Amino acid sequence: MALGEAVKNMQIILKNYVTGSPKETDFEMVPSSLKLKVPEGSRGVLVKNLYLSCDPYLRFSMSKPKTPSYSSDSKPGSFLA
């Protein structure tokens, strides 16, 4: 695989605000492409993610905000990071 080569990727997108426990229907898998390039001089590495886990903190950030928050909440249509 050459440096900077574009590869196919799947992104998990938040489709709906989550109410209660997250369900598979709250998310959407969207195909995309990604360039495999680590910045020159960087000591970074590229890794392949095999599983996605939503910890309890993410549940609150995926819920519809009731009041303004100091943290950035996820909105439907956004990439889960």
From TrEMBL:
Signal peptide: none annotated. GO terms for molecular function: oxidoreductase activity, acting on the CH-CH group of donors, NAD or NADP as acceptor. Pfam families: ADH_N_2. Residues 11-78 form the Oxidoreductase N-terminal domain. Residues 62-81 are annotated as: Disordered. InterPro entries: ADH_N_2, GroES-like_sf, MDR_fam. Gene3D superfamilies: Medium-chain alcohol dehydrogenases, catalytic domain (3.90.180.10). Keywords: Oxidoreductase. Coiled coil: none annotated. Residues 64-75 have a biased composition (Polar residues). This is Oxidoreductase N-terminal domain-containing protein. It comes from Amborella trichopoda.
